[in-house]
Amino acid sequence: MKRVLMLLALVLAPSLPARAAPPETPVLTLDEALRIARTNHPQLQAARAQTEASAARVGMARAPLLPQLSGNASYTRSSGKASSATSTGVSVPLSSGNSYSLGVNASQLLYDFGLGTGKYKAAQATLGAQEQTERNLAVHVAFNLRSAYYTAAAARALLKVAEETLHNRELHLRQIQAFVEVGKRPEIDLVQSRTDRANAQVQLIQAQVAYDTDRALLNQAMGVERDIRYDIVAPPAQALQGEDGDTVSLLEVALSARPDVMALARQIDAQELSTRSIRGGYAPSLSASAGVSENANQLDSWQLGWNARLLLSWQLFGGGITDGQVRESRASTAALRAQYELLRQQVRVDVEQARLAVRAAKAAIAAAHEAAQNARVRLTLAEGRYQAGVGNVIELSDSQVALTSALAQEVQAIFTLDLARARLLRAIGQL
Predict the structure, then answer these.
(1) Range picked from 24-28, 115-119, 172-176 for highest mean pLDDT
(2) Pairing state of beta strands 303-313 and 93-111?
């Protein structure tokens, strides 16, 4: 009977569903996060909508320059009345009838001394400025995304440091507990070790909360609402082209590539074109129109008619409104030029600060790495001294604290360089 049951179990085993393996934590790379932000960030969506609206205004400014065609159809019912009363004292209709009309009219602006063409070119320049404004927003969104990603990656690395610290504390606790049980060490060492382990557990909890919080902020930087149960993998460090160069070379790149500088330059162009357009109000405009129509009092008696007109229109005096508009436009141009000069100065400061931050971060990494290596050697020596009986638990605890601090400092130095490079990317206007 037992063998039968075993055979039956072997036969049924392949048909039983296999236990599902625990799902792996998905990994979010920096490139994927940047792609998500470019697609979903609300600020970029709003900027794209504004660019589309600006493109529509270009078409609206061009419309008056193109031929205009309109059609009309009308029906009129009319009646006439006597000019004097009849014998009954009541006015009566003398005649009544219907009238019908169908027509098509075409017109074309021939010349307006730059009034319409200036508005059209100004709208095109405004569109170019809006496109650069959208790109400038994309640069800032990319920087904020990189900043949030590197911050989350640093939190993940600090979480690993906290886990390693707790692991070391637990190893020390087991060793000290064994020494205390055989009477080799006083019981106060065991109490100190338990306290150190408890502190390490608290630090691990705080590190986990910080990592979770930074992933939530990363979701916000991507412009999405999603679960934070994913992992972060810091990309390998890559030097930026020209990061070790001087300020002058980087400034040339920034002034030619930064979208906020280009957007302001296009705004100045648009304002100057608008000024030229307003000046067209001093001169006349010339337009031509022609139309064809058919009229009838009855549907079976249509008569064809046509008309043509050449119109020269000139506002001889408008109360000074054109003068005021020209002065206002010139003042706006002067204000934009002042903003442009101020922005150039700010660009130089941004480039200088970002370049110096990269250089300082590079120097700090080497020092932090050396400090971490020395702290690890110190902990190894302290562990050996404690096991040999020539060290004490305070020395061992201080060595572990020093290693944890040095490892955290090394993590911060690494990701400080990443953030400095991200700021340099933003300073020179690169995505």
Answers:
(1) 172-176
(2) unpaired
pLDDT tens digits for 402-421? 999 999 999 999 999 999 99
* CATH assignment at residue 403: 1.20.1600.10
- 429 contacts 258 by C-beta, under 8 angstroms: yes
Rounded Cα gap, residues 222 and 38, in angstroms: 8
Lowest mean pLDDT of 211-215, 312-316, 355-359, 421-425, name the range. 312-316
Give how many domains the chain has, as a whole number.
Answer: 1
CA angle 242, 248, 253 (to 5 degrees): 60
Please give the share of the chain, as a percent, with pLDDT higher than 70. 91
Dihedral of alpha carbons 414, 416, 420, 426, sign: positive
Phi, psi of 358 (to 5 degrees): -65, -45
Task: Confirm whether 296 is domain-assigned.
Answer: yes
Range of the domain at 337: 25-74+98-427
Q: Is there a domain that residue 220 lies in?
A: yes
Mean pLDDT rounded to a whole number for the chain:
85
Q: Report if residue 82 sits inside a domain.
A: no
- Taking each helix axis from N to C end, the angle separating 30-40 and 115-181, rounded to the nearest 10 degrees, works out to 140
Kindly tell me the sign of the dihedral angle through the C-alpha atoms of 343, 349, 353, 356: positive
Q: Pinpoint the alpha helices (H) of 313-392.
A: 321-388
- Residue 342 forms part of a structural domain: yes
Residue 307 Cα distances to 70, 280, 292, 303, angstroms: 14, 29, 7, 14
